[in-house]
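quick one
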Amino acid sequence: MDASGESFVTAFSGGLHAPLQGREPKGRKAGGQFPLYIPPLFPYFTPLRRTPLSIRAANAGLGLTIKRGLRELHTYHKPLDLVRERSPERPVALVRPDALAVAARWFRDNFRGDVFYAVKANPSPWVVRGLAAEGIRSFDVASIPEIELVAEHAPGSRMAFMHPVKSRKAISAAYFDHGVRTFALDTHEELAKIMDSTANAKDLNLIVRLGVEAEGAAYSLSGKFGATAHEAPALLLAARQATQDLMGVSFHVGSQCMRPTAYQAAMAQASRALVRAGVFADVVDVGGGFPSIYPGMAPPEMADYLAAIDRGFSEMMVHETTELWCEPGRALVAEASSLVVKVELRKGDSLYLNDGSYGGLFDAAHAKWPFPVKLLRAEADAQAPMKPFKFYGPTCDSIDVMPGPFMLPDDIGEGDFIEIGMLGAYGVAMATRFNGFGDMDGAIVEDAPMGSMFGLARRSIPAPKSDFGNVVKLSRAKGKKRRRR
Ligand SMILES: Cc1ncc(COP(=O)(O)O)c(C=O)c1O
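structure w/ pyridoxal-5'-phosphate:
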């Protein structure tokens, strides 16, 4: 029990039908309408409280993020202290605010331009607040709930609506209700939507997202969005003519990009498109993709990425006031969170856990990443040999499986707790409530993450060995690309 006599705070208020929390409703400016109310779906099911759409939106679609503020979370020195004191029944998202602050300061001090945090990577309020406190006051948002989240937790920040396909309603709410001026697009149709929905505003910053050929990322992001080399010149020209404010280019080299030169190559492609269009860009936005450390994936130094971007920028046809932007997600938050899970059952080499692919372990299941693990047991038998395990999640779905392999002591069994590291990016952000699972607690810990690009821990985590002694290969076969969100 902590000094306040309080158990560690439940981060996600319980149950499938837990009332959603959010900001006080704000009357919409346009037409002075009142917030809409959602009628009950079935007359025999009466919701506890009718919730205005604007409040629901502040929570909707943000996954099971940690909604409590840091001050409401209990602090433990180490994850094992939490297990000793609480034996937590539900999964616990561990937060490491210091790791977030160190990453934020590194980008703030070293990137020669504006750093927009890609909120999708981890939309927990403590992350948004923590970044703002360290001077990251620009945010890449993809939806109205993300905009509302930033407005609530980092008021006054600059937001860029970087989703290339938005609803008209979202564009006009972003512009008129939230003061968003920066919008991405990759088609003439989206440009027309943006102009219509903002009543042909003259103060827009229009960023044309280009599709780029980029090598070396674990997740390609070129399949869904981005104007082709053929389409780009006309679109750049149209965007240039549509605004009296900034016109820019953006791209995404793919998430977890392992090659710094991918940025330089993408910038050369962007420069060619600008030259062909005969326009200058006011903004060059190099997107996200900055990597973190996972078993078997030891990226080059982060400084090498910024050096490649500097080289790429100096070779571009830009004018002297052109701004450089980036949108890191993963690199800012990956180290700042991990997950404590409980073993509910052992069946041979398989461990059945209380969290899985529908919870914080999406990438462990779908990308088959063998995240680093630690057994959290007070009297761990130092003699027990390490052995590869596979994990199953708590739902009844047979795709709720994480093949790993995860190296853990051979004597692990029911009731043991495991910390799964490096889950701050696309971890809790991806969680659902499928099958009635998904409730999670939160706690702060003071120890170092399991790996670090910023000097807080080791720079590489070895790839686990499979049962047969061969090293697990994480890189994809040449020519094959994984697609991601
Ligand atoms: C437009 C955009 N910017 C930034 C990011 C963040 O990418 P990363 O987490 O790889 O840095 C993403 C991720 O999907 C994205 O779609």
